């Protein structure tokens, strides 16, 4: 059937194609739609129909024992820290579920009336490379919630050059795919929190925009408030609409090494042990023992303002990693460094093996550098550089063995070649 000129000029109201460019054009009241747009609409409807609704994790899936078991798969040691974190996170999400039930109209018990559960933010204290940030990341993975890490050293008070405190919540909103509801239940890890401490425990006489000023700016956000963030661009464009995020159900985890805190704890404990009846044989000497006795007043003495410390009621101390723990960190976790390098070599069809003496030598070098678990990768990279450079050019290599001499004297690893037929 031949279309007339007037009919051919009719266009699809959705894609703009003319009647002669499509097989069918369906007319409606002052609107037209072509067969291609109808097919596209049907595909979209089918996708939405088969898409499963997002399931929230039940409380029984987030029991403290289950959270700790998950952390055990990814992190070696730190049992006390894992237990404390597991309980704190479980209580936090139990508090959110309780608020949801009340909002849904569930009647509380008579003795529970007027009881409001407050948020328990977490402060992680421990030496560098002991797994503080990794544990926070693993928690977010287990709970399947939006997660972001902020570096406290880059934050400044509002109005000064640097990153605004509100950007911490904005990054969480971006991690939640711009979903305000999901962002309001996420986890924020503020790393290097000890770097924004003031000097001494007395108030600063001058304006400290990168230290005490940041702590004061974080106060309302960390507790429970509505934070206004700009969707795009900077704060200097007032014509933009602001997005409001409620931080009441966001779990804040602050972490820092707090170097020098053990001296403050030792002085406090030493004072309490002075006198004729003091038992000096039980004097605490190791940093692990000292950190386990940390109190909020010690953190205030270090340089954090009392109002900020008061908003982090759960203080978790991490142990300094021993040689045995570092050796286990090398090979035991699911995503250990040894397993990562073995996978890299498998892609070249070569089996990689580390001798026990080689792993001990790597660990001792990391302890000497005082970099903790974070420094293990740098040492392995130095050891593996030459062989990883040469391996793609070598043929018939079946196995590569890293020995103690490879680590200590940078000798070439042992290579095992496949037997060739005569």
Automatic annotation (TrEMBL):
Binding locations of Zn(2+): 12, 15, 34, 37
Gene3D superfamilies: 1.10.8.60, ClpX chaperone, C4-type zinc finger domain (6.20.220.10), P-loop containing nucleotide triphosphate hydrolases (3.40.50.300)
Binding sites annotated in the UniProt record for ATP: 127-134
Keywords: ATP-binding, Chaperone, Hydrolase, Metal-binding, Nucleotide-binding, Protease, Zinc
InterPro entries: AAA+_ATPase, ATP-dep_Clp_protease_ClpX, ATPase_AAA_core, Clp_ATPase_C, Clp_protease_ATP-bd_su_ClpX, ClpX_bact, P-loop_NTPase, Znf_CLPX-like
GO function terms (MF aspect): ATP binding; ATP hydrolysis activity; ATP-dependent protein folding chaperone; peptidase activity; protein dimerization activity; unfolded protein binding; zinc ion binding
Domain called ClpX-type ZB: residue spans: 1-53
SMART domains recorded: AAA, ClpB_D2-small, zf-C4_ClpX
Record note on quaternary structure: Component of the ClpX-ClpP complex. Forms a hexameric ring that, in the presence of ATP, binds to fourteen ClpP subunits assembled into a disk-like structure with a central cavity, resembling the structure of eukaryotic proteasomes.
Family under the similarity heading: Belongs to the ClpX chaperone family.
Function, as annotated: ATP-dependent specificity component of the Clp protease. It directs the protease to specific substrates. Can perform chaperone functions in the absence of ClpP.
HAMAP family per the UniProt record, alphabetical: ClpX (MF_00175)
The protein's name in its UniProt record: ATP-dependent Clp protease ATP-binding subunit ClpX
Organism: Lujinxingia vulgaris
Gene that this polypeptide is encoded by: clpX
